[in-house]
Amino acid sequence: MLIDNSKRIVIKLGSTTVVDKKGKFKKRWVISLIKDIKKFGAGKKFVIVSSGAIALGQKYLKIKKKKLKLEMSQAIAAVGQIQLAGEFQKLFEKYRLKSGQILISPDDTEQRKRALNVRSTFENLFKLNAIPIVNENDTTATSEIKYGDNDRLAARVAQIVGADTLIILSDVDGLYDKTKKIVKSVNTLNEDIYSMISESKNAYGSGGISTKLDAAKICMNCGCHMFLANGKKDNPLRRILSNKIYTHFIPKISSLDARKKWIISSLSSTGVIYIDDGAAKALSNGKSLLAAGITKVKGSFDKGENILIVDQSENQLARGLASFNSKEIDKIKGKQSKEIDKILGYLAKSEIIHKDDMVKL
Fold first, then answer.
1. What does DSSP say about strands 225-230 and 247-249: parallel, antiparallel, or unpaired?
2. Are 41 and 3 spatial neighbours (Cβ–Cβ below 8 Å)?
3. Residue 256 and residue 330: Cα distance in Å, rounded?
4. Options 3.90.280.10, 3.20.20.150, 3.40.50.300, 3.40.1160.10; which CATH number does 8-252 get?
C-alpha cells in the first residue's frame, strides 16, 4: 500500500529533513527525494507538505534567536517561504517536474466551503501535472488559530485530496514501544499506543509523537494509510521500500467508504438535478454524471454541496457532491464535456458529479 497501490500520495517533510543545522536548504537530499518520486511514482499524484520556512528565513536574515515573538516569526516566515518555494521549484524544474505553492490556514480545512475551494486548487494543479508544495500560512497564523505542526496539516491535506497514503518522514524509524522496538503496524489508537508518547517524544522534531498520532487518527478515520519512517538519509522512499522499516497506521475503512458514508448520511439536499434516461442508465452502471444528460436544475446551491439526482419521473436515483454551482450547471446542462470550458470561460472538470462523490439510492 505504501506506493504501488496508491494513486495519490502526500509526503510530509519536517524542518530537519529539508534544512540542515546551519540553516541551509538540503539540496542533495531533496534531489534524492525527487529521483525517488520519478522512479517509483509514475502515473501517481504527489503532494509535498514541507516545513522549513522560518528556519530558512532566519538564515537569510542572519537571525540566530531560537525564541521569537509571534509577530516576528510571522515576518521571518514571509521571507523564508519565498526561499523554500524557490528552492523546490528550481530542483523540480531541473528534473522536468512542475510545482506550485499552496499556503493553508486552519480555516481553509475546517470550513467546508473553503476546504472545497482548496480541493479545487489541488485538482487543477494535478491537471496541470504540477506537484503542490504545501505549508501552513505562518505569516498570518496566530497562536490560537494554528495547526501547531505540519503533521496535522499533512493529514488534513491527505483527507481533502482523497489521498490513499500519507508518508511522514521524521528523524526516527517509526513508533517505538516501551522496549525500544519499532511497532510495525497500528490498527487502533488505544491506551497502549498513547502510553508510548512519553517514551518517544524527545526523539522527534517540534511536533513530537503526539502530533504524529493526531495525524494518524485523522488518516485512519478517513480511509488513508499513514506511514511514519526515517527521512534523514538520501533516497528516503527507496530506503523504506527496500528496508521496510516504518510504522504503518492502517485505516478502519477505505477512503471511498468514508466519503460515501458522509454523503449518504446527509439529512437533506440543497438542490435537485433532473437527468434523462441515458444518464440514468449510465449512473446505474457506475458512471459519473455528465452535463449532457442533465435536463433541469432545481434550487440554488454552491459547488461541493449535497445534491439529489432524479429521473424524469422524479424517482430518486442518487445523492452526490456537485463539482459546479447551480448557475454553472444550468448554463452547461445538455452540453458535451468538451464545450464546458468555452461556455464557462475557465478550466473546469468534465464531471458534474464524479462517481466517487456519488451514492446510488
1. antiparallel
2. yes
3. 28
4. 3.40.1160.10
CB within 8 Å of 360: residues ≥ 6 apart: 283, 284, 317, 318
Torsion of CA 218, 221, 222, 224, to 10 degrees: 80
Cβ atoms of 176 and 228 within 8 Å: the answer is no
In whole angstroms, give the CA distance from residue 210 to residue 204. Answer: 10
CB-based contact 287:337 (threshold 8 Å): no
> Other CB atoms closer than 10 Å to residue 131's CB: what's the count?
22
Q: Do domains 8-252 and 260-360 have the same CATH topology?
A: no
Task: Give the containing element (helix H, strand E) for 228.
Answer: strand 225-230
Q: Which residues contact 113 (CB under 8 A, 6 or more apart)?
A: 302, 304
CATH of segment(s) 260-360: 2.30.130.10
pTM of the full structure = 0.74
Residue 110 contacts residue 160 (beta carbons within 8 Å): no
Extents of the domains making up the chain: 8-252, 260-360
Residue 264 corresponds to which cell in the numbers above? Answer: 449518504
Cell readout for 146 is 494554528
Mind listing the pLDDT tens digit for each residue in 298-308?
999 988 888 99
Q: What tens digit of pLDDT does each residue of 148-158 get?
A: 678 999 999 99
Can you read off the three cell numbers belonging to residue 64? Answer: 540566530
